Amino acid sequence: MSDIKVDGFKASDIFVDLHTAFGGFTDAQRKAQVQKTKGIFELRITNDDKKEAVWTIDLKKNGVILKGLASPKADVTLIMSDDTFSQLAAGKMDGQKAFLTGKLKAKGNIMLATKLAAVLQMAKEKAKL
Q1: Contact between 42 and 65 (Cβ < 8 Å)
Q2: What Å distances lie between residue 58 and 36, 48, 51, 55, 102, CA to CA?
Q3: What is the 3-state secondary structure (H, E, C) of 65-116?
Q4: Can you tell me the distance from the alpha carbon of 16 to that of 112, in angstroms, rounded to the nearest whole number?
């Protein structure tokens, strides 16, 4: 788990929770989530100190959360602040609103980006169990 954590980022705790939730999936649950999402998200998060950390959510083949650049190449890269990601993960901000107001930038398959909220919500529910 410590390989996911990056000090100085609120998003880091969220990714640790996601990693834990994904680790608790059965093979069937993992395959179902991969089948439903079919994509690799690369999230570039900038904190208040203007430092950037990168996490990858691979829901194309493996169903894993990793720290670092996507390999193979991400289907969509999302760029946002630590606060914006925290609000998205908590359900306090809508992804479309964040995108339209410039708080969230996307490169690649923007339609895939719309599935991120469902991934975050599913992991949040799994973490509560």
Answers
A1: no
A2: 12, 26, 23, 10, 25
A3: EEECCCCCCCCEEEEEEHHHHHHHHHCCCCHHHHHHCCCEEEEECHHHHCCH
A4: 22
Contact between 35 and 29 under an 8 Å Cβ cutoff? The reply is no
What is the spatial distance between Cα 8 and Cα 40, in angstroms, rounded to a whole number? 25
Banded model confidence at residue 126, pLDDT cuts 50, 70, 90 = low
pLDDT digits (tens, 9 = 90+) for 75-91: 999 999 999 999 999 88
> pTM of the full predicted structure?
0.91
**Peptide bond before residue 72 is cis, with ω within 30 degrees of 0:** yes
CB contact at 8 A, 15 and 55: yes
* CA pair distance 28, 101, nearest whole angstrom: 38
DSSP letter assigned to residue 5: -
pLDDT band at 1 (very low <50, low <70, confident <90, very high): very low
User: Helices 116-128 and 27-37: crossing angle, nearest 10°?
Assistant: 160
